[in-house]
TrEMBL record:
PANTHER family: TRANSLATION FACTOR GUF1 HOMOLOG, CHLOROPLASTIC, TRANSLATION FACTOR GUF1-RELATED
GO MF: GTP binding; GTPase activity; ribosome binding; translation elongation factor activity
EC numbers, comma separated: 3.6.5.n1
Name this polypeptide is given: Elongation factor 4
GO aspect biological process, one term: positive regulation of translation
Reactions catalysed according to its record: GTP + H2O = GDP + phosphate + H(+)
Summary of the function given for this chain in its UniProt record: Required for accurate and efficient protein synthesis under certain stress conditions. May act as a fidelity factor of the translation reaction, by catalyzing a one-codon backward translocation of tRNAs on improperly translocated ribosomes. Back-translocation proceeds from a post-translocation (POST) complex to a pre-translocation (PRE) complex, thus giving elongation factor G a second chance to translocate the tRNAs correctly. Binds to ribosomes in a GTP-dependent manner.
Membrane topology: Peripheral membrane protein
Domain of life according to the entry: Bacteria
Lineage: Bacteria, Pseudomonadati, Bacteroidota, Flavobacteriia, Flavobacteriales
Amino acid sequence: MKHIRNFCIIAHIDHGKSTLADRLLDYTGAVTAREKQDQLLDSMDLERERGITIKSHAIQMEYVFEDKEYVLNLIDTPGHVDFSYEVSRSIAACEGALLIVDAAQSIQAQTISNLYLALENDLEIIPVLNKVDLPSANPEEVTDDIVDLLGCDPEEVIHASGKTGFGVDNVLKAIIERIPSPKGNIDEPLQALIFDSVYNPFRGVETYFRVINGSIKKGQNIKFIATDKNYFADEVGTLKLKQVPKKEIQAGDVGYVITGIKEAKEVKVGDTITDAKTPTTNAIEGFEDVKPMVFAGIYPVDTEDYEELRASMEKLQLNDASLVFAPESSAALGFGFRCGFLGMLHMEIIQERLEREFNMTVITTVPNVSYHAFTRKSPDKTVIVNNPSDLPEPSILDRVEEPYIKATIITKADFVGNVMSLCIEKRGQITNQTYLTTERVELTFDMPLAEIVFDFYDRLKTVSKGYASFDYHPIGMKQSKLVRVDILLNSQPVDALSALIHADNAANIGKKMCEKLKELIPRQQFDIPIQAAIGAKIISRETTKALRKDVTAKCYGGDISRKRKLLEKQKKGKKRMRQVGNVEIPQEAFMAVLKLN
Ligand code: GDP
Ligand code: MG
């Protein structure tokens, strides 16, 4: 055990975690030249295309240092806040962390939030000043920022470049010299922390774990404590670029187990694995069920595809346990599903995967957070509102509560005014303002989660010219004045376009929604009135004017094949449109409420 080092790499997004991980793998020879490619650990196509890490990954390296052989287990973590629970579990599986800071960007919001997570888990922190090759790098100043943040000596900050490989040897030396070897007892009952699971269509779910005490053996009967299920360990092994089967993985080490589990949701990140016959009495602390934060309806564009969509969602869920869904129906859209996501990025990824991997064409409706409503009749009983149409009628409604977050924003002093105005417009209340340096300011706000869902990131980027970073965590429910704004097209209410909005903003948002929908809804043979209403009261109105000419008119009596071509072309253009009554609604219209500015 004294020659094992378990570490993770934490950083703000884009500061170079995955790239530095690549260099560590090269340097230790974990990857041959043939296997080499950029951001090697980002194995999903989507991750590569978007340049982001969605899943955590683990990989083992061997490295000889001062004539001793070391085993280094690296756990790469996703940087996006939607996946922060995985970061926290990965951190709990390590004794140390490389804290990477971009030498041009310096400390950002997620640098700090991930650092706090690491410190809460008592990890040894190795600060790495990365991207020193950049012409815009500012090594002295950024080193000062790091020293201020950590209270360390400037000599402890390692200068490196994931791009050129500069400093990688010093990073490895620091990992061995500064990170403690794992403690643990091989003779105690098995206790292993699940920090990730990966769905493999051929082998079922692969569960990644860190053994804290005892050992896990091929052929052992094991038990998952939180789910209270027993399994047979068909295969255990270590995680190299390929899996390497082993007879046993002992305390201190990281590995995988395959048990024939077919569904991702049976394996819960944060759960403890133990022996089925002589179980440990201590589950590893900090297990949480991951809760969806954002809800939206997903409907097939073609109503006939409902069953196929169900099958696709079920398959996707086998693979992504954080997706939850339940059937729902909409007067406008027919049968579909109300889905829960970890955040907006997760929602986009699910929609994209449904289209790419399952060839479905779907409409996603207006996303919302989960509200708590209470009726006058039973003011203590929570009615969970995951869909605007579940909000009790105003006549029986007592009160509504909405989820709040604590937001941390780091920006330049020049933009403090802009950022504050934005946060106040988004119903935020400033709780703290700290000058980290004369240039950089940290602001904290309490804000409704719903306001983050509604177009916050883009606005923040704009008002700060890109110099603001943002992080948040939930702080509970607060009472709020919410109303449901309904949209009527051609005098028909379209329930899938309804949104819950704070009463003070409802009139303004209703008006802007009508304006936006007027832009987005294609013109047809007739005028289409667009109205926003609260209850029976119309608060705004616009009209999409009729087309002057029938586009197919010129074909009448003409060449039939030309007409067919034209119709086919129109049909293709119609992808991601839904017919509601006699009006066609494009996908963008359902997202209009998110992009009103
Ligand atoms: P992650 O989000 O922290 O995993 O960051 P990535 O490793 O995906 O890197 C983000 C971007 O920074 C990519 O475009 C990399 O090519 C680039 N990058 C990473 N490390 C370096 C470095 O040391 N120098 C320079 N110039 N660019 C880097
Ligand atoms: Mg990455």
